[in-house]
Write a structure and sequence with these properties.
mainly alpha, two-stranded parallel ribbon, 3 helices, 2 strands, 32% helix, Aldo/keto reductase, AKR_Detox_Biosynth
């Protein structure tokens, strides 16, 4: 909300959308950002809705390592 108010006070271009991390494993955007978006008429474009492949069905329970070439494998290599 502070960024929106600052934008208005400065006469800057208004916000039109937010892109928060949001998926079934991380729903913290619901605590504050969704309410602000609704009140201000902003669009919401979820970032990482499939959590880098974990929610896509490509990685099955019991899999020791993520499949080669997936984002999950890349993330684990990079730390």
């Amino acid at each position: 909300q502070k960024a929106i108010d600052l934008s208005r006070a400065g006469g800057w271009e208004p916000f039109t959308a937010l892109q928060p991390l949001y998926n079934l494993l991380d729903r913290s955007a619901e605590w504050e950002l969704m309410e602000v978006s609704r009140n201000e008429g902003l669009g919401v474009i979820p970032w990482s809705p499939l959590r880098g492949g974990w929610l896509s069905g490509a990685i099955r329970r019991g899999t020791e390592r993520p499949p080669t070439g997936t984002r999950v494998e890349t993330a684990e290599k990079l730390g």
